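User: Structure tokens for this complex, please. No commentary.
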Amino acid sequence: MATKVKSEGKCRLCGKKFSKGAMANHLRSCREKSTAKWDTKTQRKTRTFHIVVEGSPYHWLHVEASAEVTLADLDNLLRRIWLECCGHCSDFEIEGTRYSGASDMGWSEFDDESMDKRLGNVLRKGMKFRHTYDYGTTTECQLRVVSEGAAPVKKRSVQILARNEPLDIPCIECDKPARHVCTECMWDGEGWLCDDCLDKHECGDEMALPAVNSPRAGMCAYTGGDEDEEF
Ligand SMILES: [Zn+2]
Ligand SMILES: [Zn+2]
Ligand SMILES: [Zn+2]
Ligand SMILES: [Zn+2]
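Assistant:
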């Protein structure tokens, strides 16, 4: 992918756009402003984590999850919007411990923990951890707990505060926006194609997948995620 690709996203709280680098700071102040309007008498506050997820330098999410949410819930969210193609295994690695879905199914050969752990029991502010989806054609996400706070959200809720906008990746042949990615050529960074150029592409269109807004675009059989991101 060209290094010039711009990565910005929209804050879901106020609707304004920010660059990737500015988003964490913006969300902090924007969350504070929306917090100030809460009616503390009628709205209960729940302990929450602000988590940044990076699936590539261009694909990122800011998530607000309550402490009651489990790793399995977070895994589910990542699968729904970015990852799920054909039900591969996944795990989180947090401070040397693996929490896996395979463990929950009784399949794991390793000493994995279950994903039924609540975030409140395994995460702390500042912690970095990792999510791995599919041990064949792997998509790895890096996660970081930006802050802990309180919000008037449901006891068990996870929502996207911000997500990168669809990337403007140019077709390698003609610079028009790419709509497809050739799974043969993508490994050399040369698989991005528009409709017309896909018709003329030497690998044919059977090798192409949609150029969707996900770090998994072009991998395995991935054709895109769920647009409805509420949990
Ligand atoms: Zn905002
Ligand atoms: Zn797959
Ligand atoms: Zn083209
Ligand atoms: Zn190709």
